[in-house]
Specification:
Elements: H1 5-30, E1 35-37, E2 49-50, H2 61-67, E3 73-79, H3 87-100, E4 101-111, H4 119-125, H5 141-147, E5 150-158, E6 164-166, E7 198-204
Parallel strand pairs: 1-2, 1-3, 3-4
Antiparallel strand pairs: 4-7, 5-6, 5-7
Length: 205
């Protein structure tokens, strides 16, 4: 019996996904240091292994264990990923990140900043725009990471008085394009700032 082309698409997708999983698993076993971009199919950085949800659903413990050994990852980078998850899903994902980082390993996160309140920015980042489910600030993101066991440092952020703060950070630990240092999107220009993110480093104790 001849199958319709449309009936082959899910099968082809499964085959493609399995091939991607095998590739990531092989690289994860052989690469040191192991630096991983999560939720970043469009990102490609030298020395970094890129994954997206079709290979690694960061809320799925079984996906993590399919790809990585616990305490094997040196750096995790997530630029504008966690705002697409619910608070409960973020809690699961943070716990998995902690489990798979080595002691002293670093999770760098950039998300839209809920304390930046200029209208164009607010319209762009407020849920449910673009599938966003969460809006983080310097007040609510660090406690969630600390609850997972991390020590947290704020890198770039607006405070509760809508004053922008920035601390030095090394892009070799995770490059964030939507940052005060690198973003130049004119639509979001505000004084000397363009698009900014809430950026934090979370270190496994």
């Amino acid at each position: 019996m001849r199958l319709a082309v449309s009936s082959l698409i899910p099968f082809r997708d499964r085959i493609r996904r399995q091939a991607s999983i095998r590739k990531v698993r092989r690289l994860a076993r052989s690469t040191r240091p192991l630096n991983v971009v999560i939720g970043g199919a469009q990102s490609a950085f030298a020395g970094w292994l890129t994954t997206d949800r079709d290979v690694l659903d960061i809320t799925s413990p079984s996906d993590w264990i399919d790809l990585f050994e616990p305490a094997s990852i040196d750096h995790l980078l997530a630029e504008h990923v966690f705002e697409h998850l619910s608070e409960a899903e973020c809690g699961i994902a943070f716990a998995e990140c902690y489990k798979y980082l080595r002691p002293g390993g670093l999770l760098r996160i950039a998300v839209p900043d809920g304390f930046r309140r200029d209208p164009v920015y607010v319209a762009e980042v407020t849920p449910p725009k673009d599938g966003h489910q969460s809006l983080f600030t310097m007040d609510n993101l660090p406690p969630m990471l600390e609850a997972a066991g991390f020590a947290v440092a704020l890198l770039e952020y607006f405070d509760a008085h809508e004053q922008f703060q920035a601390n030095a950070w090394d892009e070799s630990d995770g490059f964030i394009s939507r940052s005060v240092r690198f973003d130049r999107q004119e639509d979001f220009k505000r004084g000397d700032l363009f698009y900014t993110s809430l950026i934090v480093d979370a270190v496994k104790r």
